[in-house]
Specification:
This protein has 373 residues and is mainly α. The protein folds into three domains: 115 residues, no CATH class; 107 residues; 110 residues, Alpha Horseshoe (Serine Threonine Protein Phosphatase 5, Tetratricopeptide repeat), CATH 1.25.40. It contains 14 helices and no strands. The two termini are 54 Å apart.
C-alpha cells in the first residue's frame, strides 16, 4: 500500500515538473523503473524531446524494452531534436538580424535547451538579453526625461500676472498642488529605483533614480543610491546623452474611459463579472471622491485574484490531461486578469513554446512524407 502511494506521488511530481518546463534535460525521474520505452515514447509524442532523450539515456540496459528505446532514440528522438535545434537556431539568427532582441533571446534559449553543447547558444541568448534591456532602457529614459521636463516646466507657470496680488491664494494653491505632484512622483521614482536594483535590474533602477534626482536634486539618499546603481551597471549598460527637451505633449494610446463614473456603473460591472473594466471604472469613481470607492476596489481585486487562480488551476488540470490548447486558453485568461503574476505568465509562455514545438515537428513530418512520395 505504501509503495503504491509513493508511486502515485512520484508520478504526480513528475507531471508537475513538466508544467515548469516542457524540457527537463537531466531532470528525468531518478528511479530507473520510471524510465521505460513507453514513458519515453509518450514524452516524444508530446514534444518533450529532451525528457524522452534523458529517459532513454538513463534506462537500465538490462530491461527488455531497452533495445526498442535505443531504436526510438536513433530513429525518432535524435532526428527530431536536431530538426528543432536547427529551427530555433535559425529563427534566433533571423530575429537577431531584424533587431528583434526579445524574440532572438527566447529562440536561442529554446535552441540551448535542445543542444547537448549549449554554451555558445546560451552566450547568444545572454547577448540578446543585454541588447533588449539596453533598448528598453534607452526608450524609457528618453520618455521619462521628456515627461519630467514637461512636468517641471509647470512649476514656473503659476506666477500671478500683473494686476493680481503677488500672494493671490488661487495661484499659490495651484503652485502647491503642482509641487505636491512633483514630490509624489519623485517619491515613487526613488521607491521604484530601490525595487529594480533589488531585482538585479540596474538599468531600470537608473531610469528611476535619474528622474528622482531631477525632481529632488539635493537629495543625499538619492545621490548615494545613484552611486550604487552606477556601480552595478557600469560594465554592461551605456547611458544615453541628455537632450535639450523642450516642452512637448506626449501622445499615448489609451483605453476610452468616461470622465465621470457613478456607483451604479461600477456595481453593474461587478455583477457582470467584468473585473478589468470594473477596476478601471472604480478607480475613476474613487478619484472623484466616490463613497466606498476603496471597498469596491478591494472587492474587485479579490474577485480578480480568485478568478485568475481558478483559470490557472483549470489550465493545470488541462495540461496534465494533455489538452494543451485548452490549457493555453485558461492560462491566457489568468494572465489577462493578473499580467503581473510571474507564475501565470511563465506557465503560459512554456505552454506556447511547447505548442510551437509540436507544430514544427508536425510540419517537418508532413514535409518528409510529401518528399518521400
Amino acid at each position: 500500500m505504501i509503495r503504491s502511494v509513493l508511486l502515485v506521488l512520484l508520478l504526480l511530481l513528475s507531471g508537475c515538473a513538466e508544467l515548469i518546463s516542457p524540457e527537463q534535460a537531466g531532470k528525468i525521474p531518478a528511479f530507473s523503473f520510471l524510465n521505460t520505452y513507453d514513458a519515453a515514447l509518450k514524452d516524444f509524442e508530446k514534444g518533450r524531446i529532451m525528457t524522452a532523450r534523458g529517459r532513454i539515456m538513463a534506462m537500465d540496459k538490462s530491461r527488455d524494452d531497452y533495445p526498442a528505446a535505443v531504436k526510438l532514440l536513433k530513429t525518432k528522438v535524435e532526428p527530431a531534436r536536431l530538426r528543432l535545434l536547427r529551427h530555433y537556431s535559425s529563427a534566433g539568427a533571423s530575429s537577431e538580424r531584424a533587431g528583434r532582441w526579445f524574440d532572438a533571446m527566447t529562440q536561442y534559449a529554446q535552441a540551448a535547451e535542445l543542444s547537448t553543447q549549449p554554451a555558445s547558444l546560451l552566450k547568444k541568448r545572454d547577448t540578446m538579453e543585454i541588447r533588449m534591456r539596453q533598448q528598453r532602457m534607452d526608450t524609457l529614459i528618453d520618455q521619462r526625461r521628456a515627461e519630467d521636463a514637461y512636468l517641471l516646466s509647470w512649476l514656473n507657470s503659476y506666477e500671478p500676472p500683473k494686476g493680481v496680488s503677488p500672494k493671490d491664494d488661487a495661484f499659490q494653491r495651484s503652485l502647491e498642488q503642482m509641487q505636491e505632484m512633483v514630490e509624489e512622483r519623485g517619491s515613487q521614482a526613488y521607491s521604484d529605483a530601490r525595487r529594480y536594483l533589488g531585482k538585479d535590474l540596474p538599468e531600470l533602477a537608473y531610469v528611476e533614480i535619474e528622474s528622482y534626482l531631477r525632481l529632488v536634486p539635493d537629495s543625499d539618499r538619492g545621490k548615494s543610491l545613484m552611486a550604487d546603481i552606477r556601480k552595478e551597471m557600469a560594465k554592461t549598460f551605456r547611458i544615453a546623452a541628455y537632450k535639450n527637451y523642450g516642452v512637448r505633449s506626449v501622445s499615448t494610446k489609451r483605453v476610452a474611459l468616461p470622465e465621470t463614473v457613478k456607483r451604479e456603473q461600477v456595481v453593474d460591472l461587478i455583477r457582470k463579472g467584468d473585473w478589468i473594466k470594473a477596476k478601471r471604472y472604480a478607480l475613476i469613481y474613487r478619484r472623484e471622491g466616490g463613497k466606498d470607492g476603496d471597498h469596491l476596489l478591494r472587492q474587485i481585486q479579490t474577485n480578480i485574484e480568485k478568478d485568475a487562480a481558478g483559470y490557472f488551476a483549470r489550465g493545470r488540470v488541462a495540461f496534465r490531461q494533455e489538452m494543451l490548447e485548452k490549457a493555453i486558453e485558461y492560462w491566457e485568461k489568468a494572465v489577462a486578469l493578473e499580467p503581473e503574476n510571474s507564475e501565470y505568465v511563465n506557465a503560459l509562455q512554456r505552454a506556447r513554446q511547447l505548442q510551437e514545438r509540436l507544430r514544427v515537428l508536425k510540419s517537418d513530418a508532413k514535409s518528409d512524407s510529401s518528399s518521400a512520395q
